[in-house]
Design the sequence.
């Protein structure tokens, strides 16, 4: 599902939070203009010189990354194509937030990033230095707290976003591919000395903007983008020659990614003995329960304990079949799968027991993902109110949905099978 839907209540969020853009806990007050962010080159140099590479195979990286969380609606947020971490109503990102995420039990943070107008004209396509500094600063917040990081190019591939340019069915593919290579070369070069805690993801939910069967030419271009990404990263050298790299299929859709049209890129320049390619998919089924904002069609219950207002598809057997498909196609063949986004928006305003079914869905999906060797990453857009996905208050850096987090952590840490607690209704 495209990110524009997951901006849920962004305008309301902006109004509600405009008065509380101050720091988390004990941080000093500062401007929300992220282009003023300054990262010390000397400090970064010293940091990466001290880093040691730990070669993690598929089993080790999957276990180490554990349960993930998205820093959503922040560095991918934009206003008229200009990226800004506060554009969609969230406060300036503080390291205290990443500490709270770590303390809650998460092992991985996915950091969506949009570049859009921060990319200069060709042929160099130079990324704005201050913006890349800020991206690096936020990545460091996570890695300094012993979190794994998945960093991508996020909002640049949407036909619905002003300034989107990774457009798979446009005619100017030579220009798009040259720009894609130049941008990823700059990003990869900036982070090439970081250790195994950093994973690059080529792009996010790229497709032609229509639903149904993929456009064949568009899919060929997506496969080509992934190959360009892998080659560009490897060519920057240092730890990038052995880093895990994450690539999606059409719109990160499981059906279209496990199908015949998706081509796993060749990784001939990788210096590791084993595979170092991961596969990216998202999971938001059934739509009416997870994402539908139209309360006349949205459902509020899910799973074996649902008694009313639930979908006639996308239930527990469907989760199992989708996760098995990922296992059969990828994880059993040595390719880790990251479910980069999953979650259910809050509909407690229409059904006071909805959070119990949200918890049950999340716990079931995480349990099934783990059983099939996948790495689940919860989508959090920072909004805790009506139609939000938030698990944390990003102003105070505190947990807001302890029951959902408890269920997620029970699923990711439990050994073997266990009975998921029924929703309390």
Sequence:
């Amino acid at each position: 599902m495209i990110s524009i839907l997951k901006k849920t209540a962004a305008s309301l969020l902006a109004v509600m939070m405009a008065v509380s853009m101050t720091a988390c806990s004990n941080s000093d007050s500062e401007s929300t203009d992220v282009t003023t962010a300054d990262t010390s080159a000397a400090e970064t140099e010293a940091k990466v010189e001290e880093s040691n590479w730990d070669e993690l195979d598929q089993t080790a990286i999957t276990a180490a990354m554990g349960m993930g969380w998205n820093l959503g609606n922040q560095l991918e947020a934009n206003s008229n194509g200009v990226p800004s971490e506060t554009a969609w109503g969230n406060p300036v990102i503080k390291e205290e937030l990443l500490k709270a995420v770590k303390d809650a039990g998460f092992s991985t943070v996915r950091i969506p990033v949009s570049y859009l107008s921060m990319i200069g004209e060709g042929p160099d396509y130079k990324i704005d230095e201050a913006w890349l500094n800020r991206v690096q600063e936020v990545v460091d917040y996570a890695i300094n707290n012993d979190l794994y990081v998945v960093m991508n190019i996020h909002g640049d591939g949407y036909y619905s976003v002003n300034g989107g340019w990774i457009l798979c069915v446009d005619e100017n593919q030579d220009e798009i591919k040259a720009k894609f290579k130049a941008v990823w070369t700059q990003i990869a070069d900036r982070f090439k000395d970081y250790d195994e805690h950093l994973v690059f993801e080529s792009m996010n939910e790229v497709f032609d903007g229509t639903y149904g069967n993929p456009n064949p030419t568009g899919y060929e271009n997506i496969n080509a983008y992934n190959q360009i990404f892998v080659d560009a990263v490897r060519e920057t050298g240092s730890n990038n020659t052995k880093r895990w790299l994450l690539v999606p299929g059409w719109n990160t859709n499981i059906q279209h990614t496990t199908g015949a049209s998706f081509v796993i890129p060749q990784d001939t320049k990788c210096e590791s003995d084993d595979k170092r390619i991961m596969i990216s998919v998202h999971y938001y089924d059934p739509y009416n329960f997870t994402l539908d904002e139209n309360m006349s069609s949205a459902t509020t219950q899910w799973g074996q304990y649902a008694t009313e207002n639930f979908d006639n598809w996308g239930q527990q057997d469907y989760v199992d079949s989708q996760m098995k498909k990922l296992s059969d196609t990828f994880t059993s063949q040595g390719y880790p799968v990251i479910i980069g986004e999953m979650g259910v928006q809050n509909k407690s305003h229409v059904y006071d027991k909805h959070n119990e079914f949200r918890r049950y869905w999340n716990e079931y999906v995480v349990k099934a993902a783990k059983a099939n060797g996948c790495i689940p990453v919860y989508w959090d857009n920072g909004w805790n109110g009506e139609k939000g996905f938030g698990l944390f208050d990003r102003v105070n850096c505190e947990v807001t949905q302890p029951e959902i987090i408890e269920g997620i952590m029970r699923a990711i840490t439990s050994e073997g099978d266990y009975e998921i607690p029924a929703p309390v209704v």
Q: What stands out?
A: The chain has one domain: 3-23+32-413. The longest helix spans residues 216-235. Residues 276 and 391 are 31 Å apart (CA to CA).
